[in-house]
Amino acid sequence: MADCKTGNGNNTAAAKPATEDQKLVKENQEITDNTYYISAKQAHQLIEQNPQTAILAVAYGKYPNFNKGHIPGAIQMSTNEVESQKNHWNILPASQLRKNFLKKGITADTPVIFYSNDISAASRVAFAAYWLGVKNIKIIDGGQQAWTRAGYKLQNGKEAKVKAQSNFGNNTVAHPEALIKTPKELLAAESANPNLVLVSTRSWKEYLGNISGYSYIKETGEVKGAVYGRISKSSSDVAYLTNGDGTIKNPTAELEYWKKKGIVPDKEVVFYCGTGWRACVPFFIAKEEGFQNVKIYDGGWYDWNISHKANPEKFPVQKGEPGTSNFRIEKGTVAER
């Protein structure tokens, strides 16, 4: 079964460019600290204004065909440098993250622009940087394809050499509130706030428990209490949030759907998926749309499933569509309908 870590997104080169009204990112938007997705033109302007801006080409492993063409000045950063299989694909400890960003010449005060063929990959690494404390984070909407469509040239050859830094600028995580790491922490958060809205960003088939969506996860289901967020159509996309050219959709329709599900700005909203990638895109969109208390449950279905198998009573699993006769809660050997 495919999953989001087996590739680097869809090839959008031949896709018809989305119109301005179809996109979240507007060319005339005011860019603030709370703006995370920007256009290629805006990225180009920021780089010109501040040549010290770090540009990260993100992928799972090596960036595809990087030496044949990349945004000028870009260096590569793998998602494996912010998460690991050993760590159940969760965000690495802060101390290791600092070391990995410092190797790229990045400190808390370095402006960083991320791009990828896969918006989830770019957003995943950007989220790790945000959580850690990089203050100025931007993600190119539509990635490298958007850069070339805007008429900007690519650079051939190997990545630029960077001078590693030794002082990140802080020794504490800047945004601990944004990350719920483990199933135990999720239970604690739900106990502290019964109105917390837990949002699955997984596909409908995953949400129902028909498939796991992952080659390395056999079991199916969802965390008890999760609502369906209508984010992805498979385990390797966030298709409900993106246009055919890879840019992020105007979120009006999605926000209306979220509202019907109780996913609203004045509530504590926690996004999760299987192992973290897909949850990061709605996280940043929600922040841009005024959500004040939005988080990611990093352990996702992967960690919840492991905990469920060890203690099914404490970590129950739901399957089926809530409100229908096929919906059930699994606690051990007994399924409650």
What does this protein structure show overall?
The structure is a single chain. The chain has 337 residues and is α/β, with parallel strands linked by helices. 26% of the residues lie in helices and 16% in strands. Strand 14 and strand 15 (328-331) form a beta hairpin. Helix 3 (119-132) crosses helix 8. The chain is globular and about 55 Å long. Residues 7-11 have low confidence and may be disordered.
Query: How large is the count of helical segments?
Result: 9
Strand order of the largest sheet: 1-7-6-2-3
What is the number of beta strands?
16
Strand content: 15-25%
Along the chain, the helix and strand elements come as: EHEEEEHEHEHEHEHEEHEHEHEEE
Main beta sheet, described? Answer: 5 strands, parallel
Structural class: alpha/beta
What portion of residues is helical? Answer: 25-40%
Coarse shape: globular
Distance between the termini: 29 Å
Low-confidence stretches: 7-11
Mean pLDDT: 94
Task: Round the Cα radius of gyration to an integer and report it.
Answer: 20 Å
Write the layout of secondary structure elements.
Layout: E1 37-38, H1 40-49, E2 54-59, E3 75-78, E4 83-84, E5 90-91, H2 94-103, E6 112-116, H3 119-132, E7 137-140, H4 143-149, E8 179-180, H5 183-192, E9 197-200, H6 204-208, E10 222-223, E11 227-228, H7 252-260, E12 269-272, H8 277-288, E13 294-297, H9 300-310, E14 317-319, E15 328-331, E16 334-336
Parallel strand pairs: 1-7, 2-3, 2-6, 6-7, 8-13, 9-11, 9-12, 12-13
Antiparallel strand pairs: 4-5, 10-14, 14-15, 15-16
Helix pairs in contact: 3-8
